[in-house]
Amino acid sequence: xxxxxxxxxxxxxxxxxxxxxxxxxxxxxxxxxxxxxxxxxxxxxxxxxxxxxxxxxxxxxxxxxxxxxxxxxxxxxxxxxxxxxxxxxxxxxxxxxxxxxxxxxxxxxxxxxxxxxxxxxxxxxxxxxxxxxxxxxxxxxxxxxxxxxxxxxxxxxxxxxxxxxxxxxxxxxxxxxxxxxxxxxxxxxxxxxxxxxxxxxxxxxxx
Length: 207
Prior knowledge:
The chain is α/β, with parallel strands linked by helices. Helices cover 24% and strands 25% of the residues. It is built from six helices and nine strands. A nine-stranded mixed beta sheet has the order 3-1-2-4-5-6-7-8-9. The longest helix is centred in the last third of the chain and has 14 residues, at 177-190.
């Protein structure tokens, strides 16, 4: 496994932050303040935020500043995403967010071990870089992106590694939504331990 980049824990590359509605997974429909960190070495070919990959393109921002803006929004929930946020030590970021009364959620491929204190961990594994084994036992939610028919088997392989209480979601990759969603619907009907996740924020035309 490649080592994490060496960077301060009190300031991180921030691509964007905004208050919106969580559009995916277990917290779908909830108001949430998103912190999108720059930097990713996973390299999903269908990624819709490839501009996040190069951390040097995004300003190094104090975690205190991030937390203050999140709290000022009025949100009760902060979602840390990327890029790939677990590239960084997120201990100080979660500390600052939680000290201001925000619940902390992370969306990650699990490419590195988790750092920080999380109220909810969404593991969304990618074929391009396998999750670190330690992340499976910490996942509250497994969200698998379905791009090809073969991804259902791949999803089950990962579901077998998470806790029995982990929420299981199948989500169509946006560009394949019309093709994959009918297959997901039938799969969930046959395998009701899974749930359907949709990117409803895209249907609503919000960030």
